[in-house]
Amino acid sequence: MKTVYIVDDNEVIRSLLHNALSRRGDCHLYSFDSGNAFVAALDGLEEGVLLLDIHMPGLSGLDVLSRLAATDRRIRTIVMTAKAEIALAVEAMKRGAGDFIEKPFAIEDLMGLVDRAFEALQDARDQAAPRETARMQIERLSAREREVLVGLVGGLSNKEIALDLDLSPRTVEIHRANVMSKLEADSLAAAIRVALTAESAHFA
């Protein structure tokens, strides 16, 4: 089941959205009457789509987006704004909102955005899986093996790496063989691909 969070201080709107989304039959629904209440629960929330009102007492929708961006929660946000609030909508997008919709809106239009948000979450999962696998492989390497891998990614030969690290070429060859084994790479190109997938700028 998918998860949708509704955050709006207007009880009528929360109820309307809850009823409309419940008819989909494929969503767990959680409603919050303020940005403060949502942020207080944030640490325990799972992946999902957030329908977020921009104007609320206490923490505004923009405030909530800033708090959300500071976490590792995988939550795709659709901001609900009043008409002619394009500047606010743009600011919301800058703070991490995936989409926005102007009130009043047709439920069918909102459902289309919800579907698109779930597709974006699936795409993010698909892209994250190989990165996570590559990072786990990189973590198997010792500090010295990572240094050798950095050299390989930089296009250095074994001799050049040996000079840089003040090692013998034979020692570099041993480290290189260990790198290939731990990365499950059958070629230098495959090892470099793993490093780049794992965002090699950050593993050294």
Automatic annotation (TrEMBL):
Residues 3-118 form the Response regulatory domain. Pfam families: GerE, Response_reg. Residues 134-199 form the HTH luxR-type domain. InterPro entries: CheY-like_superfamily, Sig_transdc_resp-reg_C-effctor, Sig_transdc_resp-reg_receiver, Tscrpt_reg_LuxR_C, WH-like_DNA-bd_sf. The modification 4-aspartylphosphate is found at D53. The keyword Transcription applies. One of its GO terms (biological process) is regulation of DNA-templated transcription. SMART domains: HTH_LUXR, REC. PROSITE patterns: HTH_LUXR_1, HTH_LUXR_2, RESPONSE_REGULATORY. One of its GO terms (molecular function) is DNA binding. Keywords: DNA-binding, Phosphoprotein, Transcription, Transcription regulation. It comes from Sphingomonas glacialis. CDD domains: LuxR_C_like (cd06170). This is Response regulator. SUPFAM superfamilies: C-terminal effector domain of the bipartite response regulators, CheY-like.
